[in-house]
Q: What sequence folds into this?
């Protein structure tokens, strides 16, 4: 083997030795798992409509069911196995939001049921709600000007 | 099985494709940037609010149904749509009540089921 003398050569050496980024495989897994989760949501929507619910109600029911199921799957340590495989496929759908609540809450259970579970469950969900709700208020205020 | 016959499978396919593609965008962000998953969640919800406000997300929801509403961008879209509709109905107050009202079911379910699931969960036991 040739001696490595400059940082550039070292970088080349590292690039050659490290495995190819598995981005294609990751994207493929994210694609079909994410698509599948959304399709389950679509089937629930159809079922709600079949039973006579309107679009808005059906959408709310889909959110509640998917959030409930993924919260308990996280509690049973099943969701993190799916998450490891699917990456963004289970993170980006609303299931990821429920997972982001339960995972830190579980971890800090030893700190008690009020500040441990009750407080830490918003470690990730807190920022999501802060930015989501604040932006929606700004949108509402801007809409006020245009109406 | 009347229900299974009533299903529009073409709609499910569109939902699968669009939902999958939105997740691929998230996966590319994870692999190509150093963003944490928490930041990605924030980015998706905020992007959904902005796209929803500009009227760019609505066509996607019409086309793909749950494929557009189940990803977190859909949660953001819902917030924006609720805020705008409430402003049209009741004015200034609507900017504050509309968004959360539209997303109330999801937020309340996340808080309630999240707490409940954490309570019944067993902490991971690390094997030596």
A:
């Amino acid at each position: 083997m040739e001696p490595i003398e400059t940082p550039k050569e070292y970088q080349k050496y590292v690039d050659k030795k490290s495995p190819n980024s598995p981005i294609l495989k990751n994207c493929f897994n994210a694609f079909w798992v994410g698509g599948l989760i959304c399709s389950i949501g679509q089937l629930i929507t159809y079922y709600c409509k079949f039973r006579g619910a309107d679009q808005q109600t059906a959408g709310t029911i889909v959110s509640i069911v998917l959030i409930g199921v993924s919260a308990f799957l996280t509690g049973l340590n099943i969701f993190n196995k799916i998450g490891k495989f699917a990456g963004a496929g289970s993170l980006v759908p609303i299931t990821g939001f429920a997972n982001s609540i339960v995972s830190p809450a579980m971890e800090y259970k030893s700190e008690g049921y009020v500040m441990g579970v009750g407080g830490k469950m918003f470690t990730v969900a807190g920022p999501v709600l802060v930015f989501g709700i604040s932006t929606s208020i700004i949108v509402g205020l801007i809409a006020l000007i245009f109406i | 099985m009347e229900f299974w016959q009533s299903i529009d499978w073409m709609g499910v396919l569109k939902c699968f494709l669009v939902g999958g593609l939105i997740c691929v965008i998230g996966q590319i962000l994870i692999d190509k940037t150093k963003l944490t998953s928490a930041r990605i969640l924030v980015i998706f919800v905020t992007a959904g609010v902005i796209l929803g406000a500009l009227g760019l997300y609505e066509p996607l929801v019409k086309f793909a149904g749950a494929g557009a509403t189940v990803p977190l961008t859909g949660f953001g879209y819902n917030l924006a749509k609720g805020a705008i509709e409430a402003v049209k109905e009741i004015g200034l107050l609507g900017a504050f009540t509309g968004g959360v009202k539209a997303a109330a079911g999801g937020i309340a379910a996340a808080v309630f089921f999240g707490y409940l699931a954490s309570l019944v969960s067993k902490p991971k036991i690390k094997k030596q």
Notes: Chain B has a mean pLDDT of 92.
